[in-house]
Amino acid sequence: MTTGTRESRLSSAFVKLADTLVTEFDVVDLLHWLVERCTEILDTQAGGLMLTDLTGQLRVVASTSEEAELLEIFQLAVGEGPCLDCFRTGIPVTVGNIEIDGGSWPTFSREALKQGFKSVHATPLRLRGQVIGTMNLFSHHVGALVPEDIAVAQALADVATIGILQERHIRSANLVTVQLQRALGSRVLIEQAKGVLAATLNTTMNDAFAIMRTYARDRNLRLREVAGDVVSGRIDVQNPPRLMGQSPPAQGRSAGFPAQIP
């Protein structure tokens, strides 16, 4: 990626974040967007993002690929990995060569290499000492992020964290935890909808998510709403052209769709 292209994408990312955070926004969609943009800007091949739930435990909320998602879930299952260390310390963790430098997390390292990843960088989602999650970037190539790239990842993560914890949503501790819990709950529903679409349209989970998100954006709907409609049958998943947003309904998410999936 050329310097000009990189600077343009970085500038656009901050503009997008700033524009998003002054209005009510979809947390799940924002976090998926954040991970996608960071993987593009920093030339990594995959990424994932974890947030804490009501009990303080980390949960996977966003990922750019099935391999990244599996590796994130694997870290949580075995209780080791650079992403977990990043969360515990609130400090970025960079591993330029997992095969050589991953000795602190042998189980994670074996799985990462199995999934085709050779390096990883974990960035904390933190604000004033409070760490609410981590953003994790994985690469198929050996090489640590340079200090400039680490700063870029942290800056984007910081802005997103401010958005999640911004004042209108944190007048009490309860509002913070409710919003985070809602994001985690949304993920479960979205994963169910992805499975329905992938099976019905004979496509991948990643493509199913892209179709669903495009549909939501074209109609100015929340991703969770669309996922709920897919799972409940209010959207006709047997009709790919409609689902892919070629002919948005004039009013509401149900216009032009049958009440139930045939």
Automatic annotation (TrEMBL):
The record, for InterPro entries, names:
ANTAR, CheY-like_superfamily, GAF, GAF-like_dom_sf, GAF_ANTAR, WH-like_DNA-bd_sf
- Which positions are tagged coiled coil? none
Q: Which domain of life is it from?
A: Bacteria
Per UniProt, the keywords (alphabetical) are: Kinase, Transcription, Transcription regulation, Transferase
Q: Which GO terms describe its molecular function?
A: kinase activity; RNA binding
Region: Disordered; residue ranges are: 237-262
Taking every annotated instance into account, which residue ranges of this chain make up the domain ANTAR? Answer: 170-231
Q: Where are the transmembrane segments?
A: none
Q: PROSITE patterns, from UniProt?
A: ANTAR
- The identity of this protein, by name, is GAF domain-containing protein
Origin species: Salinibacterium xinjiangense
